[in-house]
Structure formats: structure tokens, C-alpha cells
Amino acid sequence: MSVLTTNTDEMRQPAEWMVPTDDRILELIREEGNLTPGAIEVLGGPSSDHASRRAKKLAQHGLLEQIHRGLYRPIDEGSAYLDGELDAADLEPVE
Question: Distance between CA atoms of 6 and 88, rounded to whole angstroms?
């Protein structure tokens, strides 16, 4: 019988305000580049309505950047979170 072990230093640390689909949105935007919520849905993410709400929330907390109304791009903080290098609970909402 094998035992799977993981290094907790490399595990993602979501914040209380995050939901499971947030990781998928961040992954898609990191892989594909600038995306709209509609494109996120087409690429296998959540519905465009849900993606729109969540991308806005992720941008408010500094994990994505909104570069135009409804258009989001990846930023270093989002990649650091996905790589397990950033605890999202440490982020404060950006005004």
C-alpha cells in the first residue's frame, strides 16, 4: 500500500472569500492570457455570469488585473497563488 504525501509549503492557500471555481479561472487566464468571462466559459470554466462575478472579486483582491470592462489578464500574484507561493488570505481588497 502506498501513501501519498504532499509538501504543505507547495499547497495553495485560498482565502475565506474564495470559491473552488476561482482556481480554474486563474488557471485558464494564466494559460491563455487575457480573457473575458465568455471566453472563460468556452474554455471549460464556469458560466460567464459566474466567471464575471468571480473575476471581478479576484481582481479586487489583487490576483487578476481588469484591463478593460470585462477583460482580465494574469498578474504575478495570481501565478504565485497558483504555484503555492502566496497565501491568498494575506491579501487585502484593493480599492
Answer: 19
**Does some domain include residue 93?**
no
Residue 78 to residues 1, 2, 3, Cα–Cα distance (Å)? 36, 33, 31
Which class for 73: exposed (0-12), middle (13-18), buried (19 or more C-beta within 10 A)?
Answer: middle
Q: pTM for this structure?
A: 0.86
Q: Which domain holds residue 45?
A: 37-86
Say if 44 falls within a structural domain.
yes
Q: What is the domain count for the chain? A: 1
Cell of 88: 491568498
Residue 6, pLDDT above cutoff 50:
no
How far is residue 23's CA from residue 85's CA, in Å, rounded to a whole number? 14
